Amino acid sequence: MNTFLTSLVSILRKAFPHIRHGKSEWIVNHTGYLRFQAEVWRDDNDHFHAVVNKRSGWMNPRHERAVDCGEFDSFHCAMNTAYRQALELAHLRYAWEMPDYTADFH
């Protein structure tokens, strides 16, 4: 019975590759122009690859891969790293475009 279930899971993984990966929500910067998303997928060697995707624009957004975070042994480690990197990229965008409220206007 255990061999049957193992074989069934293996067949389903090959038949439905979308089950073998995950994506987080889009993390938006304060302008809404840039969005970042963590993505993880498993390769044929059972390693997990983590990347951060970037979407820019409002009307006709462009999608591209922003950062390759590397290869991991577990899905959790890969998603955690990619998600942290996506948050950091969105935060850095905030820092670049935030007005300086400490300036003396008098």
Report on this structure:
The protein is of the alpha+beta class and 106 residues long. Strands 1, 2, 3, 4 and 5 form a five-stranded antiparallel β-sheet that branches. The chain is built from two helices and five strands; from the N terminus they run H-E-E-E-E-E-H. Helix content is 35%, strand content 32%. It has one domain.
Give a quick set of tags describing it:
106 residues, alpha+beta, five-stranded antiparallel beta sheet, 2 helices, 35% helix
Q: Report helical residue fraction.
A: 25-40%
Strand content: 25-35%
How many beta-strand runs?
5
Structural domain count: 1
Outline the biggest β-sheet: 5 strands, antiparallel
Task: Give the mean pLDDT.
Answer: 78
Spans where pLDDT lies below 50 across 5 or more residues: 96-106
Distance between the termini: 80 Å
Shape: elongated
SS class: alpha+beta
Helix-strand string: HEEEEEH
Topology record:
Blueprint: H1 2-15, E1 21-23, E2 27-28, E3 34-42, E4 48-56, E5 62-72, H2 75-97
Antiparallel strand pairs: 1-3, 2-3, 3-4, 4-5
